[in-house]
Amino acid sequence: AQSVTQLDSQVPVFEEAPVELRCNYSSSVSVYLFWYVQYPNQGLQLLLKYLSGSTLVKGINGFEAEFNKSQTSFHLRKPSVHISDTAEYFCAVNTGGFKTIFGAGTRLFVKA
Amino acid sequence: EAGVAQSPRYKIIEKRQSVAFWCNPISGHATLYWYQQILGQGPKLLIQFQNNGVVDDSQLPKDRFSAERLKGVDSTLKIQPAKLEDSAVYLCASSLRTSGAPDTQYFGPGTRLTVL
After folding, report:
1. For A100, which residue in chain B has the nearest alpha carbon?
2. B3-62 pLDDT per residue, tens
3. Inter-chain contact A32–B102, Cβ cutoff 8 Å?
4. How confident is the model at residue B116 (pLDDT cuts 50, 70, 90)?
5. What confidence score (pLDDT) does residue B1 get?
6. Average pLDDT per block of 10 residues along chain A, 112 residues long
7. DSSP labels for A34-96?
8. Inter-chain CB proximity B109 and A99 less than 8 Å
């Protein structure tokens, strides 16, 4: 069965610093991978997704993620964060079936 | 383009009472999802519809939860009777395609349910 582990429940970082949010998945078959962001009092919205092709995926708001099949990881990165990036970030995996499995989330807190 | 609409936004009920949530997906989206998001956890799929048929309800507690999607558009999720552990945010999402690679899911703002 597939599963998703987000290794950090909270990540505090200063404004303009780089950040990496870690995500590992478990699956015996090919996967499709997603990062969603949830701003306070809002629904989730897609940041980026990996379906096939280049393993480096660029998303909205300057975020990018790299699919590493050998390490079964899909870490999210941003070279310089803003206060407005404060939110909860969810990694998700789908193996081509109906169900997308979400991780528990990582709360990014950007400090001035 | 209008997003996914949900109502109500907040609901407080006593345990053993009933409650219903409503979702209007993005126009033309064939697939509709209901998720339960307990505080501190990621969304957990309760039920997934493709048009007006159920494709996955394996994690829906069918003794108390029910959902329908009439005419393949709007959907309602009902809990009867509610338990304390049902306190959560209930998210509705929709996506366009029904086949091929998984499609982007568009989420509504959610309904925050508190069971006292």
Report:
1. B45
2. 999 999 999 999 999 999 999 999 999 999 999 999 988 999 999 998 889 988 999 999
3. yes
4. very high
5. 65
6. 90 97 88 92 90 91 94 96 96 83 96 94
7. EEEEE-TTS-EEEEEEE-SS-SEEE-GGG-EEEEETTTTEEEEEESS--GGG-EEEEEEEE-S
8. no
State the pLDDT at residue B102: 79
Measured CA to CA, the distance from residue B59 to residue B36 in angstroms comes to: 10
Q: Which of A35, A49, A98 to mutate to test the interface with B (most CBs of B within 10 A)?
A: A98
Interface membership of A90 toward B (CB under 8 Å): yes
CB pairs under 8 A between A and B: 54
* Rounded Cα gap, residues B31 and B43, in angstroms: 17
End-to-end CA distance of chain A: 41
Helix (H) or strand (E) holding B19: strand B19-24
Q: Is A4 on the interface with B (CB under 8 A)?
A: yes
Q: Which residue in the set A41, A49, A102 is minimally distant from B104, CB to CB? A: A49
- Inter-CA distances, B75 with A61, B32, B44, B101, Å: 32, 8, 18, 24
CA distance A112 to chain B (A): 25
Cβ distance B45 to A43 less than 8 Å, yes or no, reads no
H-helix or E-strand spanning residue B12:
strand B10-13
Query: Dihedral through CA A19, CA A8, CA A57, CA A16, nearest 10?
Result: -10
